[in-house]
Design goal:
The chain has two domains: 2-146 and 315-330, Rossmann fold (3-Layer(aba) Sandwich); 149-313, Glycogen Phosphorylase B (Rossmann fold). The protein is built from 16 helices and twelve strands. Helix 1 packs across helix 16 (316-330), helix 9 crosses helix 14 (284-297) and helix 12 (246-254) packs across helix 15 (300-313). With 334 residues, the chain is of the alpha/beta class.
Length: 334
């Protein structure tokens, strides 16, 4: 997203420096951005590649990204900005769980020490965050996920939605896939929808479930556009409370009705429930009832409101000025 905004600001196609991993994140496979990700064998080569930059943007304050970015900035005397999608530091330090935090201090002392170091050494660096809940927690500028260009064209393209419920994304443990499966399975067979999930099939896969495995970005967007309902049933975990899944934004653009857990960042994204159905996290019954409601009435007015909200808040044009101002602030006004 920042890569697209930088191009739209007239700064060209930025190179994306990587020192780890064998490929790009599955969610951006096939995107224009992915073609500009370049892996370097070491920090010396990465530093040389960043020589002409005015600003180094660290993507998420993770050890594998923050510390190399820090070295590059120190060597080249460049300013840094940190773009933060999720509450990584807070989760690493178990900020809402004193007992768990104490246990981590004892059992995983080195890990906790690393997160404390990142928190300490990132103080004073400007953060951009994916939502205002995380901005309030972390400090910095709220710069939400946005869509534009080819991705937006796919989401708003022609084609009728099918009567299916989909979970499109990375099925991490806190995403509530078990609750979603149980909720769909509890809908009477005569009206039970097909359930699409972008993950590998488990041993107990059911006939009404279609397990697609990880899919490239464009295919994920097409699946959302063809889904009557997009579901994000995250558990009420500290990590999920400040996370705003991009697939919710995609669903609003595509007029795929969002049914999601009532968590602070998701509630903000859905404009306090005006643009999607919010349910109690972890409740099979609440999720099933919301899915049945969505199947019964289609919620056309809510989908219209969601699409307009997405156009107002989650497009390149809507956030370009915020992005440019944040970069100029981080770079010292240049």
């Amino acid at each position: 997203m920042l890569w697209n905004l930088a191009e739209l600001a007239g700064w060209g196609k930025s190179d994306v420096i990587s020192l780890n991993g064998d490929g790009v994140y599955s969610a951006v496979l096939g995107s224009d951005f992915a073609a500009y990700v370049k892996k370097y064998p070491g920090i010396d080569e990465a530093t040389a590649a960043a020589q002409g930059a005015d600003l180094v943007v660290c993507i998420n304050p993770l050890p594998d990204s923050f510390f190399p970015a820090q070295v590059i900035c120190e060597r080249l005397h460049k300013p840094m900005m940190i773009d933060c999608d999720d509450p990584y530091i807070e989760d690493g330090l178990s900020w809402q769980h004193p007992v768990r935090r104490l246990a981590k201090e004892v059992v995983r002392h080195q890990v906790v020490a690393t997160w404390r170091r990142i928190r300490r050494e990132s103080a004073g660096i400007l953060f951009t965050t994916s939502n205002p809940v995380l901005a309030q927690m972390r400090g910095g500028v709220s710069l939400p996920h946005v869509r534009g260009g080819r991705e937006l064209a796919i989401l708003t393209g022609d084609g009728d939605a099918q009567p299916v419920v989909s979970f499109i994304g990375v099925p991490r443990i806190y995403k509530g896939i078990k609750v979603l499966r149980a909720a769909v399975a509890s809908i009477p067979a005569a009206r039970r929808p097909q359930l699409l999930i972008t993950a590998d099939a488990p041993p107990d896969a059911r006939p009404h479930e279609q397990w697609l495995g990880p899919v490239p970005q464009d295919e994920a967007l097409r699946l959302i556009r063809r889904s009557a309902i997009s579901c994000v049933p995250s558990f009420d975990w500290a990590y999920a409370r400040a996370q705003m899944p991009l697939k919710i934004v995609d669903a609003m653009f595509a007029r795929s009705l969002v049914v999601a857990s009532d968590l602070p960042a998701i509630r903000w994204c859905l404009d306090d429930g005006r643009c999607g159905l919010l349910v109690r996290p972890g409740s099979v019954t609440a999720l099933r009832e919301a899915l049945e409601q969505a199947l019964d009435d289609g919620a056309s007015a809510m989908k219209d409101a969601a699409q307009q909200h997405a156009r107002d808040v989650f497009t390149f044009d809507a956030q370009l000025d915020t992005f440019v101002a944040a970069c100029q602030l981080a770079a010292g006004g240049h």
